[in-house]
Design brief:
149 residues, mainly alpha, 77% helix
């Protein structure tokens, strides 16, 4: 049974709305909202700062950083592993708007994608280790309290 495109879009939109409305139920919703915006702000800052890594993109306006970040996010959301290829296509396409040749745009997209991937892998790995240590300490503390009481 094949679902129509309209129904797929309706299901997707419903999921987005449900997800946004679920924020109301969070215990620390304002912290969640703040951190969500902060993360996107940092992505934007990193994207714009990377423009200075290449002479061709060093003089682009701040708006170019925003356009590249937004289109790059769509590339990352594409149904390919890690946004590989789609991210590069979207960022280089965004830079075409500002007169940057596609080859140079792909080079910048590769620098951006690689640096962001490395940050995610490094800090993600450190977070897993920290979580494991914190969780073990919390579990051990709970067991000690149970044995004492």
């Amino acid at each position: 049974m094949q679902i129509s495109l309209v129904k797929k879009i309706a299901i997707f939109a419903s999921g987005i709305i449900t997800g946004l409305l679920s924020i109301r139920k969070l215990e620390n919703k304002w912290q969640f909202i703040f951190h969500s915006f902060f993360i996107w702000f940092i992505y934007f800052v990193v994207t714009y700062i990377m423009f200075f890594a290449m002479q061709d993109t060093a003089n682009l306006p701040v708006s170019a950083g925003l356009v590249a970040m937004v289109l790059g996010a769509f590339g990352m959301a594409a149904p390919v592993q890690g946004g590989i290829g789609a991210y590069h296509l979207m960022v280089s396409g965004a830079l075409l708007i500002y007169g940057i040749p596609q080859e140079k745009g792909i080079i910048l997209a590769t620098i951006l994608h690689t640096s962001q991937a490395l940050v995610m892998v490094i800090f993600g790995g450190l977070s897993v280790i920290a979580l494991a240590l914190f969780y073990n300490k919390k579990t051990n503390d709970r067991h000690e309290k149970q044995n004492i009481g």
